[in-house]
From TrEMBL:
One of its GO terms (molecular function) is oxidoreductase activity. The keyword Oxidoreductase applies. It comes from Chondromyces apiculatus DSM 436. This is Amine oxidase. It comes from the Bacteria. Its cofactor is FAD. Keywords: Oxidoreductase. Transmembrane segments: none annotated. Pfam families: Amino_oxidase (PF01593).
């Protein structure tokens, strides 16, 4: 059969790829979106569970938004979602703030107001000073990086910061206390699902700068918090509306195996041997997953090394569903810490459906639990919930579901790709730089809210703009 032709082929029907395709079609260009899986959404995956109250959607991947994630908010409104952060009937729901949060820091269990970023009342004056001192140093560095969100490798001290891991930074100051160190380690594991020794300190600062501040990135309460709200009907509602708007140009079950470039365009070949031709291509995956494709001519060395040095975090995202939220009113459902396998938990109850708690197992704990059976995963997670909230009722959920992202053949982990020491200054310039007729999207290619849904949206738009500017 002759190759199907269009102006731009987009590889990947995650949020970033579909946003790139949407912008191109709005500019009058023809597109085809090729998706390897039998669904859209990429790392925004959902599962529908039949409950007595009807079907309920659980976000097993990306799920949250905040009021300053403007690209995502605008997209949702254009797709017909009602985004009103002050209206309880809106299509977004605030993370529960009523009740106490459980913190495990420095080996101790502490209760504090969920509305507070940290259990300040539990700290002695020396600890408070140490925490303030660490935050002051980090925010001062992040302020520098805000001027280099497009080119972190050119920031002052970039090479020195990129030589360090986050763990190296913690060991660089003899005045850091064990509590200071524990707080930052918990934050790294909670946001990136890796261990602090695995992440470049420069990458850490840059990522925080693209979110505005470290407080915004780590917080899950308040309108500006990165995890302040979740979608009433799940992120898949956004993805489905976007896919419906694009229509039949989205082709599922079309894993791309090869992209060949020539003088006038590109030829894209799928695993089944189908060929598609276009003037340009946009690869909307993480750098790591983009390396699955065979490129002719081969990718430049720095792009190859970038893909090899951008591993994704190791995440197991779980939901435990109960008949009622028996942890109310004492607990909000929020817990943070690294004493148990759970790095953090959060209440995700959406009336009238039964109560549910979301829990993350990440990093080394995810590695240890990843090879276990479904029953063993449930047993370990629910036992950790019992330890965290000190209530035996958590041991026997009505329903339990989880997603081990490291075992996903098309994602290789989550939530995002992470740069180890040395990678960003050596190979970061290849992150968004086109390779002849190939452009790059995906949340890792963003310059605002890197790694988040909002970043995926803006990176898709940016790749479409690149293709349009280059000539279509």
């Amino acid at each position: 059969m002759p190759a199907e032709q269009c102006d731009v082929i987009v590889i990947g029907a995650g949020l970033s790829g579909m946003c790139a395709a949407r912008k191109l079609t709005q500019q009058g260009r023809s597109v085809i979106v090729l998706e390897a899986q039998s669904r859209t959404g990429g790392r925004a995956r959902h599962e529908v569970v039949a409950l007595d109250s009807g079907e309920h959607t659980f976000d097993l991947g990306a799920a949250y938004l905040g009021t300053n994630q403007l690209a995502l908010i605008q997209l949702c409104r254009e797709l017909g979602l009602r985004i009103d952060f002050d209206d309880p009937t809106s299509d977004v729901i605030p993370v529960r703030a009523e009740g106490s949060a459980v913190y495990y820091l420095n080996g101790e269990r502490t209760l504090a107001s969920t509305e507070a970023a940290l259990p300040w009342s539990a700290f002695n004056p020396l600890s408070l000073f140490g925490i303030w001192r660490m935050q002051f140093r980090l925010e001062r560095f992040i302020q520098v990086m805000r001027n280099h969100v497009h080119d972190p490798w050119n920031a002052p001290n970039a090479e020195r910061w990129d030589d360090w891991s986050v763990e190296d930074f913690l060991k660089s100051d003899v005045f850091f206390t064990r509590l200071d160190e524990d707080m930052l380690r918990v934050g790294v594991r909670a946001v990136w699902s890796v261990e602090p020794a695995e992440m470049s300190f420069l990458y850490f600062l840059w990522y925080a700068a693209t979110a505005g501040s470290l407080d915004t990135l780590l917080d899950n309460q308040g309108k500006d918090a990165a995890q302040g709200f979740f979608f009433r009907y799940g992120v898949h509602d956004v993805c489905q509306r976007l896919a419906a708007q694009l229509g039949p140009v989205v082709r599922l079950d079309h894993p791309v195996m090869r992209i060949a470039q020539h003088d006038t365009g590109v030829t894209v070949t799928t695993r089944a041997g189908a060929e598609f031709q276009a003037r340009r291509a946009i690869v909307a995956t993480s750098p790591a997953v983009s390396s699955r494709i065979d490129y002719d001519p081969p990718l430049p060395p720095d792009r190859i090394h970038l893909a090899q040095r951008s591993p994704l975090g190791r995440t197991i995202k779980c939901y435990a569903v109960y008949d009622e939220p028996f942890w109310y009113p004492r607990y909000s459902g929020l817990s943070i810490g690294n004493t148990t396998p759970l790095i953090w938990t959060m209440d995700c109850t959406v009336p009238p459906h039964p109560a549910s708690l979301m829990a993350f197992v990440v990093g080394d704990h995810a590695d240890a639990l990843g090879g276990q059976s479904d029953a063993e995963v449930q047993r370990a997670v629910c036992a950790a919930l019992v330890d965290t909230f000190q209530d035996e009722r958590f041991r026997t959920p009505r329903h339990f579901l989880y997603k081990n992202w490291s075992a996903d053949p098309w994602s290789w982990g989550g939530p995002t790709g992470v740069a180890p020491p040395g990678a960003l200054t050596a190979f970061g310039r290849a992150l968004r730089r086109p390779f002849n007729r190939i452009h790059w999207a995906g949340a890792e290619a963003a310059t605002a809210w890197v790694g988040y849904l909002d970043g995926a949206v803006s990176a898709g738009y940016a790749a479409a703009d690149q293709a349009l500017t280059a000539g279509l």
